[in-house]
Amino acid sequence: MYFDTHAHYDDAQFDSDRTALLASMPENGVSLVLNPGCDTASSETAVSLARQFDFVYAAVGFHPHEAKGMDDTAFDRIKELASEPKVKAIGEIGLDYHYDLSPRDVQKDVFARQLELARKLKLPVIIHEREACADCLDIIRGFSGDVRGVFHCYSGSWETAKTILSWGWYLSFTGVVTFKNARKSHEVIKNMPRDMLMIETDSPYLAPVPNRGKRNSSLNLPYIAETIGGLIGISKDEVAELTLENGRRFFGI
Ligand code: NI
User: What pLDDT shows up at residue 2?
Assistant: First the structure.
């Protein structure tokens, strides 16, 4: 059975079939899904999906793209939602200098504020980082002793991975590992400790080969597991079990 540790079922791309698709997950080998939030509205939806489906859990927070929208009212609402029993993390949070959809100083403030909240609530964090590695690691360093985290859709170097892993933090991989140019991620997967590895789809985005370019869903997890299994010499079912166990430990489920 699979644990999709990062999927956005609140996304409008699921409006036509969300309930039926989610309801079909357990009979198709997906036993757990974690739906992160990106702003107040998506965090609210994540929590309501978690209330509706036993096997769905939520994270709440402000994505760096949406950071400019996190005023005090929004922050207070995230804090309230975080106390819901099925909210297992603060996320996704971080820095994105590729799109720069929020000013960088705002992204940094909002990121640090949410790390502080995670520390206070003793929740782990889900990190989104794109082209902002140095600043991201600098900010996390102030919290890494008492906040746990995972880098979602990890695509950085083995050098950077070693720093993240040395904090006891986890790395999570998407369908990008099935793409042709994934050599860097493959090196990380081969070298990292297996018990710090998680898998995710980032649905509706990043569908793996052979469904690249289509709407993604947790049903594509076996393609990711197959690729990872090939890299570390275990079967796709063993990758499923391993990453299910790692995900449960990480999120406390
Ligand atoms: Ni995401």
Answer: 98
